[in-house]
Design brief:
Elements (H helix, E strand, L loop, with lengths): L2 E2 L4 E3 L5 E3 L6 E4 L1 H11 L10 E3 L8 E3 L4 H14 E11 L4 E7 H18 L4 E3 L5 E3 L3 H8 L8 H14 L4 H18 L7 H10 L5 H20 L15 H22 L3
Antiparallel strand pairs: 1-2, 2-7, 3-4, 5-6, 7-8, 9-10
Helix pairs in contact: 2-3, 5-6, 6-9
């Protein structure tokens, strides 16, 4: 039985119950059932969760501190959220078997667990948040997070709208690989939007940018930005996968390029919405 914060939550008793030998009441959680569920769902993990690792199985080996990789640890957090509950004692203490009987409040347990997890994230400077639906999301840089939280962008092109929503959804995920996929999808959206105003792609992007700025100086700046973003997308494994291309791997670089590209897409969509 795993309890914390003065009996606030209980891991598994409601989903993996241990029955009292004298009847059908729940007196705890079944450790073997819990262990089996964790091992089946979370590759490389077991229960109880180990905290040390031994490289060599001989008398010269030493135990080294161990913890799961970040994404596996976050998967475990989401798994626990699904099965955690607040224990509520029912009836009197069972003297013969020396235990209480319980019922469980899942909503209260999940809320308490979420508060504890997010407090740990915050205190350790980890840019993650466990949401009310039990999913862990990245805490995005302020400027990007604000941009993505604005009202949903609708272009009138259903395919483009789906691309944008897929990209926005993936970008908040905890995995760096999925964040990069979000940037790749945004690059696909960029290529599509450039052809949305005219069959000729060059004329199309020109029309779109004309509607974004009447001042010649700013219009020139936007055209330069559009060209640079296209070059970046084509040369850094974001749209093509040729040997000569250099991949964008660093998460901070992905954040930067995503915000830069999203900014011009949002400007074009909003300025062209009334046209």
């Amino acid at each position: 039985m795993w309890q914390h914060s003065q009996n606030r939550v209980h891991l598994g008793g409601g989903r993996f119950p241990e029955q009292c030998p004298d009847g059908t009441a729940i007196c705890g959680n079944n450790e073997q059932s819990l262990k089996g569920a964790i091992e089946a769902e979370l590759d490389g993990l077991t229960w109880p969760l180990p905290t040390v690792h031994r490289d060599k199985d001989d008398f010269l080996s030493t135990d080294e501190p161990w913890h799961p990789e970040t994404l596996i640890a976050l998967d475990l957090v989401e798994f626990v959220w699904r099965i955690v509950a607040k224990p509520i004692i029912i009836g009197s203490y069972h003297d013969y078997h020396r235990h209480h009987h319980y019922t469980f409040d899942e909503d209260a347990g999940r809320d308490a667990f979420r508060d504890d997890v997010n407090r740990i994230f915050e205190r350790n400077g980890l840019a993650y948040e466990l949401k009310p639906d039990g999913q862990v999301w990245r805490v995005l840089p302020a400027v990007i997070g604000e941009a993505l939280s604005r009202p949903y962008l609708r272009t009138g092109d259903s395919t483009l709208d789906v691309m944008l929503e897929e990209s926005r959804s993936k970008f908040s995920g905890p995995s760096p690989l999925i964040c990069r996929e979000a940037l790749e999808r945004l690059c696909d959206a960029w290529e599509r939007i450039k052809s949305i105003a005219h069959a000729d792609k060059a004329k199309s992007i020109g029309l779109l940018l004309d509607r974004c700025a009447e001042e010649s100086g700013f219009r020139t700046l936007l055209e330069k930005e559009a060209r640079e973003l296209t070059v970046i997308a084509n040369n850094h494994l974001l749209r093509h996968h040729e040997v000569r291309q250099e991949p964008v791997i660093d998460v901070q670089h992905v954040n930067y390029l995503y915000h830069r590209l999203f900014a011009i897409l949002e400007l074009i969509i909003r300025k062209n919405a009334a046209c």
